[in-house]
Amino acid sequence: MIISLKKGTKRREISEVVRKVEEEGLKSEVKAGKTKSIIHVIGDTAKKSEEPYYAFNCVEGVLRVTPRKYRRVSKNNQDDKYLVKVDNFYVGSGKLTLMIGPCALEGEEQIKDSVGLINKIKRTYVDNKPRSNIAGIVMRGGAFKPRTDPNSFQGMKKEGLKYFADMAHSYGIPIVTEVMDTRDVGLVATYADILQIGTRNAQNFNLIEEAGKTGKPVLLKRGMGNSLNEFLGAANYIAKSGNENIILCLRGVKGMQDEVYRFNPDLVDAIELSQRVRTPIAFDPSHSGGDKKYVSDLGRLAVMAGVDALLADVHPYPEIALVDPKQQLTPQMGRKFTKEMNFYKGAYLKGQKQFNKL
Ligand code: PEP
Ligand code: MN
Known about the structure:
- By secondary structure, the protein is an alpha/beta fold.
- The chain is 37% helix and 18% strand.
- It contains eleven helices and 14 strands.
- The strands form three sheets. An eight-stranded parallel beta barrel has the order 7-8-9-10-11-12-13-14, surrounded by eight helices. The protein has a four-stranded antiparallel β-sheet with strand order 2-3-1-4, with helices on one face.
- Helix 3 runs parallel beside helix 4, helix 6 crosses helix 7 (228-240) and helix 10 (292-304) runs parallel beside helix 11 (331-356).
- It is elongated and about 70 Å long.
- The two termini are 28 Å apart.
- Manganese (II) ion binds at residues 103, 287, 323-324.
């Protein structure tokens, strides 16, 4: 680990940092330059955090030399952030990305109506709003659906995906859609702007690696029973294939609240992840909450936890949706949700700007 010090750092200040290094059980070597100095931290720093050093005013940055376990997705320093380019905007740029649309693609009519709805929302809250806090809208919609019951609707597959992509792209809307099988990775990558790996495949490493190899952005959902380390391990499979375009999506984990949320909203993990990883972080209030009545509140909490993106189900007529009817927002709720999230992201950014100065 190398600690670089600001120009004009006093000897006394250097000694304070050195003392901290020693307190951590490590050794140090100070290298004084003409204008700037560095402290070389020696020892097993793999499990040590660089955070304590940022508490010193004289510290400019901390660079890791020792590889860490999840080094490919881990932050190298506090400001290390990888932005994922989608269409003409970046996920993780500070503004919010919304990924909205129906849970599943159900038929040509439903796809047409869904694209029309998302296009209107995009025009109102992003395209015609120069000071929007929403960086961009990606449309979601599953063609390949992982269903618990093999007898329930399994998705429109290739036919639906092609129709969806053509229709959304004709309006200039990028799409995110799930890929469930290594055999379909090529096909899905041809049409989708972001490949989604669902919670049920969150440790299907062959699939994850294949998706990574396409070079396309990958939205990796957390396994519903996975720890954060397992989640990061899976993300590292994407990075290992040479693809850094990773978006980590929290979507709730199995808990003891079946009667309330569908999955326990793992929002506190958004805070932990944002301190640990450099990739953008998303949250899915629809699949976590499992009910449209929770979506806006959970979305607000996620924005306040600092997430870069939200993934939410919005359907033109949820009352007759073939998949997850209870949790999909109506068109009116979808518009309100977008308006609200734009507002809360604005409040979050304003607060950050104001209090970072203190
Ligand atoms: C989805 O987003 O359509 C989905 C099935 O989500 P999850 O994998 O989180 O259940
Ligand atoms: Mn769903």
